[in-house]
C-alpha cells in the first residue's frame, strides 16, 4: 500500500508565513497580478477552513489563522477542508485550488520545510478539456474589425478606434490572453522590418515570441502615433504600458473587458459570441483558424503558449469534427443517403 505522507514533525512555522514565502517565490516568475491573487485566494480559503478545526468528528479547537502551524496540517484535515471547499464550487475552481496547494507543498518539500507532500491523499475532480469557443460565423472576425475601424457612431463618449482595433487585432492575429495584453510594454514589439514579433510573458511565467505580420505592425504604429498626439511623445516610452485608457493610465482588467464587450455591441455581433468567452473568444478564433489552415498541434502550442499538446490538439480535433459535420450536411451527401436507402430496398 502506498504511503501517503502527512505534514508532521515538530515544526511550529506558521502556515500563513509559509504561504507568503511561496507567493514571493512565485512572483519571481512574473505571473500576472490576477494569477498571483488567485494563488493567494486559493491558499487562504483552504487555510481558513483548516484553522476552523471542526471539519471532522473530534476535530481540534479553532485557531486564529495567523497562529496555525504547518505541523497541524495533515492529509486528513486537508481532505476535510477540500470537501467543504468543493461543495458550492465548480470542478474547475476546485481543481485549480488543488493544483495551487500541490505546488505549495512541492515548494515546501524542496525547501526542506516539510517531510512530504500530502496532496496525493486529497482527491481532485476531473475537469474535461474546455471546448474551444471561437466567434460564430465565418466572416464575423472581419465584420468586427471593420466596424471598430470606422469612426465613432455617436454612441461612444470617448472614441479611440486606433486603440480598440489594436486590442482586437492582438487577440485575433496573435492569440494573446487578457493578462498578456495587460502586461505588454511598448518595447514588447521588437524585430526588424519583415521579422517583427511581440514578446509575451505567458501563463505560468512562460515567455514566448509571436510573429506579427506587417499589417498588424502598421496598426500598432498608427495607434502609438495617435497616442503621442493625445498625450505627448513622452508618454510613449519603451517601458510604458502598450495599452492605456483615455487618461493615459495603463488599462486594467475590468476596463479591457468592457472595451471588448463594447466593440461587440458596436459591431452588432453580441449573438455570435459564445457565453462566457468574451475576449477569450478572439484567442480561440485565432487558434481555430490556425487549425483550419493546417497548423500542427506543436505549432499551435508554441504560438498560444499552451502548457501541453493536449490543449492544442483539442483545436484540431474540434475543427476536424466541424469539417465532418459540414460534409455530412452537404446536399450531395444527402442525395447519396437517399440513393443508398433506395439501393438497399
TrEMBL record:
Keywords (A to Z) from UniProt: DNA recombination, DNA-binding
Record GO terms (molecular function): DNA binding
One Pfam family matching this protein: Phage_integrase
Cross-referenced InterPro entries: CB, DNA_brk_join_enz, Integrase-like_cat_sf, Integrase_catalytic, Integrase_recombinase_N, Tyrosine_recombinase_XerCD
Limits of the Tyr recombinase domain: 130-328
GO terms of biological process kind: DNA integration; DNA recombination
CDD domains: DNA_BRE_C
Domain (Core-binding (CB)) ranges: 13-109
Record region (Disordered): 118-140
PROSITE patterns in alphabetical order: CB, TYR_RECOMBINASE
TM annotation in the entry: none
Name of the protein: Site-specific recombinase XerD
Source species of the chain: Catenuloplanes indicus
Amino acid at each position: 500500500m502506498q504511503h501517503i505522507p502527512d505534514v508532521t514533525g515538530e515544526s511550529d512555522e506558521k502556515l500563513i508565513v509559509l504561504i507568503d514565502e511561496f507567493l514571493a517565490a512565485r512572483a519571481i516568475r512574473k505571473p500576472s497580478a490576477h494569477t498571483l491573487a488567485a494563488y493567494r485566494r486559493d491558499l487562504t480559503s483552504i487555510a481558513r477552513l483548516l484553522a476552523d478545526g471542526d471539519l471532522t468528528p473530534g476535530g481540534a479547537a479553532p485557531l486564529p489563522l495567523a497562529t496555525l502551524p504547518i505541523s497541524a496540517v495533515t492529509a486528513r484535515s486537508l481532505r476535510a477542508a477540500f470537501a467543504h471547499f468543493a461543495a458550492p464550487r465548480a470542478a474547475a475552481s476546485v481543481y485549480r485550488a488543488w493544483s495551487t496547494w500541490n505546488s505549495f507543498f512541492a515548494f515546501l518539500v524542496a525547501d526542506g520545510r516539510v517531510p512530504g507532500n500530502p496532496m496525493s491523499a486529497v482527491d481532485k475532480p476531473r475537469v474535461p478539456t474546455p471546448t474551444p469557443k471561437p466567434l460564430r460565423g465565418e466572416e464575423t472576425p472581419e465584420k468586427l474589425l471593420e466596424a471598430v475601424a470606422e469612426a465613432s457612431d455617436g454612441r461612444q463618449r470617448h472614441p479611440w478606434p486606433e486603440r480598440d482595433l489594436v486590442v482586437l487585432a492582438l487577440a485575433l492575429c496573435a492569440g494573446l490572453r487578457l493578462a498578456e495584453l495587460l502586461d505588454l510594454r511598448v518595447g514588447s514589439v521588437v524585430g526588424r522590418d519583415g521579422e517583427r514579433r511581440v514578446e509575451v510573458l505567458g501563463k505560468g511565467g512562460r515567455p514566448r515570441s509571436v510573429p506579427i505580420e506587417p499589417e498588424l505592425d502598421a496598426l500598432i504604429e498608427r495607434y502609438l502615433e495617435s497616442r503621442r498626439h493625445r498625450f505627448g511623445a513622452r508618454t510613449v516610452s519603451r517601458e510604458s504600458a502598450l495599452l492605456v485608457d483615455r487618461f493615459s493610465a495603463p488599462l486594467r482588467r475590468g476596463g479591457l473587458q468592457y472595451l471588448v464587450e463594447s466593440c461587440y455591441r458596436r459591431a452588432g455581433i453580441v449573438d455570435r459570441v459564445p457565453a462566457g468567452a468574451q475576449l477569450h473568444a478572439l484567442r480561440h478564433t485565432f487558434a481555430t483558424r490556425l487549425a483550419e489552415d493546417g497548423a500542427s498541434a506543436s505549432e499551435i502550442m508554441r504560438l498560444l503558449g499552451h502548457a501541453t499538446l493536449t490543449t492544442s490538439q483539442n483545436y484540431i480535433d474540434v475543427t476536424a469534427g466541424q469539417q465532418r459535420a459540414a460534409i455530412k450536411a452537404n446536399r450531395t451527401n444527402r442525395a447519396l443517403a437517399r440513393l443508398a436507402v433506395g439501393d438497399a430496398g
